[in-house]
Amino acid sequence: MSKKELKMVENSNNVSDALIELVHTFSKEVQVINGEEFDCETGVSDFDSAIKKSLMVSRSKPIVILNAHNLNPQAAKILYKYCDGEESLCPNSFFIFFIRKKIKSHDNSTVEICEQQSREIYSGKWSEHLPDYILLPLIHRISEFTVCF
Known about the structure:
The protein is α/β, with parallel strands linked by helices.
């Protein structure tokens, strides 16, 4: 990853847009779904269709879901259904959620909790699927995003 691309993420006023741009740059390795495209109340069926289509297009690529805070609990059931449930299209697939978390104070304990969560997630098999040039800049912004599965 070039310094220019990393700088784009570090200096962006809109981190979400920068991450979308960054991940799209490496779209051969991942698929991106932006949660902001789906209304949290009425967009559940659209989200269902988007996940199903993404899995059918490429079963080997991880799916990165940005702005997952826009999705309601119904969306989690949809993901489970396709990932591990009875309608699983790809048992080995996985999803990465980036839920926007604005931290008003720079309290070290808050940041430490976020960093610990990221280490737990990326220390296991998840890290095998994404190359370092995607992982590192995303972890770099962990104080502004909570990452969870």
